[in-house]
Amino acid sequence: MTAASPAAAFRHPARCPARFSVEQFHRLCEAVPEQRLELIDGEVLEVIAKGTRHTAVVHRLIRAIEACLAAAPHAPLQLRVEAPLDLGPAHEPEPDLALVARRDDDYWNAHPTAAETSLVIEVADSSLVFDLEAKARLYGAAGIPHYWVVDVQEPRLHVVQTAPGSVPGWLNRIRQCVEQILAALPQG
User: Fold this and answer.
1) If DSSP codes are grouped into helix, strand and coil, which group holds residue 9?
2) What is the tens place of the pLDDT at every residue in 3-61?
3) Are 141 and 129 in contact (CB under 8 A)?
4) How many domains are there within the chain?
């Protein structure tokens, strides 16, 4: 028995999409550079246009997370924004934010893998169900230890998955910063 595709629950039943490898996906992206695409379970998905609230929250999160990382120089992490992750031959999502292992080359020749990714944060304005279900399955199956979804509508932080064991101090500080940002957001 095979596991259902993470994107399968969000697919039109009559639609039978072609499956792409990461290599084929990269060629497609080169052919249509004006489009923002991501690869989930071999399926090419167009990235939804970002609204003003989504963008504002992402920018606030960037400032807060960068400040947390600067205050914890011992945390060997770097923040990536809307950048691909290499999660295998059929997966190359572009999460809104990801904390990955710090590398001197800034991943010049390869995208970070799941093993190099400590935290993924998706910001959901209109994609909440997809982020909480399909993306959660994808990141969980890849072995990413921590996955959060920021719901811009509520506003609310969904801690979707966390690795067993003790939570690193840097992660607690980032969570506090994220919750402060959400508490300060205008309602409605």
Assistant:
1) helix
2) 444 444 444 444 556 688 888 887 877 888 777 777 778 887 777 778 899 999 999 99
3) no
4) 1
Hey, which bits of the chain come out as E strands? 37-40, 43-46, 77-81, 97-101, 117-124, 146-151, 156-161
Q: Is 151 part of a structural domain of the chain? A: yes
Distance CA 80, CA 36 (A): 16
* Predicted pLDDT of residue 75: 79
Q: State pTM to two decimals.
A: 0.82
Q: Kindly state whether residue 162 falls inside one of the protein's structural domains.
A: yes
Torsion (CA) 21, 24, 29, 32 in degrees, nearest 10: -130
Cα–Cα separations (whole angstroms), residue 149 to 15, 30, 90, 179: 28, 30, 22, 12
Cα–Cα distances (Å) from 55 to 124, 125, 134, 152, in that order, read 10, 10, 22, 10
Strands 146-151 and 156-161, sheet pairing: antiparallel
**Model confidence over 96-148: pLDDT tens digits?**
999 999 999 999 999 999 999 999 999 999 899 999 999 999 999 999 999 99
Structural domain of residue 117, as residue ranges?
Answer: 50-184
What are the structure tokens assigned to 83, written together?
């950048």
Q: Answer whether residue 170 is part of any domain.
A: yes
**CATH code, domain carrying 73:** 3.90.1570.20
Structure tokens at 45: 């998905």
Q: Is residue 87 part of a domain?
A: yes
